[in-house]
Amino acid sequence: MAEFIPVGSFDIVIFGGTGDLSRRKLMPALYHRWADGQIPENSRIIGVSRSDMDDSAFKAFAFDACEEATPEKLDKTEWKKFEKHLAYVAMDATDPKADWEALKSLLTLDPERPCIFYLAVTPKIYVPICQALGKVGLSDGNSRVVLEKPIGTDLVSAREINEGVGAVFCEECIYRIDHYLGKETVQNLMVLRFANSLFEPLWNRTAIDHIQITVAEHYGVGERAGYYDGSGALRDMVQNHLLQLLCLIAMEPPNSIDGDAIRVEKIKVLEALRPMTKDKVSKNSVRAQYKAGSVKGEAVGGYLEELGRDSDTETFVALKATVDNWRWARVPFYLRTGKRMKGRHSEIVIQFRPAPHAMFGQSKGHGQSNRLVINVQPDEGVKLYLQIKEPGPGGLRIKSLPMDLSYEDNFQVRYPDAYERLLMDVVRGNLSLFMRREEVEAAWKWVDGLLEAWQEAETPMHTYQAGVEDGPVEARMMLRRDDRDWWEIKDD
Ligand code: BG6
């Protein structure tokens, strides 16, 4: 079993307690932390939502949620112990006349003990809920508020949320989640860079040719079509997850992993992103929608069919981003993400430059140079491709082969979900894996500029076949123009 640092007792209130996030992620995460003995006995988990249910119905909901998220059946005796922590309050937290006393009566309200308010609700009601919490005296002492992404839909709305929430909670009490930062492999990215002296001297424009960040998903938008259509791949994935990955690769070494040190370095990267302009946007970006195709041999509909109407929302985006600073001058960062791609695969490829002199007669091209591949998911691990002589007499053939550091082979532990780590960090008061206000706003500023450029340039919407293609052919063309190729997306 992995080692866990115990946390102190806490109360957590989940607004949107019976919602999708609570079911898929929060309940299972809390259960697993409890099952590993990390959550102290007198901690409380309180679900809040408008659904008219009582404690026992909420416990049944939580049981189903945890069983759904766990490969094996839950042990009922153990579950009985866990469910003692659970309680439920039915209320509309945005209604000024709501019965807050019922909720307050369940909280310990001890200044020494963290009281966490997790807003797993639409961002539109972040501010009203926080205002209500302030009014009933629940925002002081050791209170913390957790905000799920997306924080707004553009810079203006993000600022409104940040200001509204900031008027009630201090910045150090606000935990803005990007769950990618809780993923093991994403944290390992920092360890890889800063705990190995091997990479840092090479981690710049002199040795690195370009960087690719791919987050490919094979599922479509399904039941989330309503939300997704108002968002699209750029807002849903790039503004947060992909830009966070880019920041961790591009940032300068922070002084420590504590407090603000990492966050400050990430903000510098976001501020150095070159804005996309009308004249360059069609060359440096591709937007597309999936059309009907097939996933694992089964026919699936296209985005518009799933949505049931016409739409100009992209389900795929590919970008060539530039970080305008000394370290990264002339090193493109190619980003791509999409729904209904060929496989589910997230990876980061650091492509090194070819050896300066081709004494073995290699042809030009990245196939012949070193490559560091960080598999974010699935098959978590790191591969470093080296050029090796193929055995055999006659001639000298060179092959590119990986030194393969698979997590599964090296650590026989259950993989904690990103939310497990992040929830425990909130309890511990560790903000380093959460986004600071300026970070969210800088990311929106860049994304807003890109959206505006798309509109001005009337950037076309391309298509790709669901489940069959790695995105549209135009995304490949974007790299071909630079004499490069995407690394193939593997089908899991
Ligand atoms: C969410 C997006 O933030 O991340 C979803 O809203 C996406 O659209 C999800 O599917 C991907 O997360 P993961 O952890 O499955 O890669």
Topology summary:
Elements: E1 11-15, H1 20-35, E2 44-49, H2 55-68, H3 76-83, E3 86-90, H4 100-104, E4 115-119, H5 126-135, E5 143-147, H6 155-166, E6 174-176, H7 184-194, E7 208-216, H8 225-229, H9 232-250, H10 261-272, H11 278-284, E8 285-291, E9 293-295, E10 298-300, H12 303-307, E11 316-321, E12 333-338, E13 345-352, E14 371-377, E15 381-389, E16 398-406, H13 407-410, H14 418-428, H15 437-457, E17 461-465, H16 473-480
Q: What are the salient characteristics of this protein?
A:
single chain, 492 residues, alpha/beta, Rossmann fold, Dihydrodipicolinate Reductase, domain 2, 9-stranded mixed β-sheet, 6-stranded parallel β-sheet, 16 helices, 21% strand, globular, binds 6-O-phosphono-beta-D-glucopyranose
What small molecules accompany the polymer chains?
Answer: 6-O-phosphono-beta-D-glucopyranose
Rounded to an integer, what's the Rg over CA atoms?
Answer: 24 Å
Count of helical regions: 16
Helix-strand category: alpha/beta
Report the top-level CATH class of the largest domain.
Answer: Alpha Beta
Largest sheet: 9 strands, mixed
| Low confidence ranges | none
CATH architecture of the largest domain: 2-Layer Sandwich
Ends distance:
26 Å
Domain count, please report it: 2
Strand order of the largest sheet: 16-15-14-13-7-12-11-8-17
Q: How large a portion of the residues is in β-strands, by DSSP E?
A: 15-25%
Helix content: 25-40%
Query: Overall 3D geometry?
Result: globular
According to CATH, what is the topology of the largest domain? Dihydrodipicolinate Reductase, domain 2
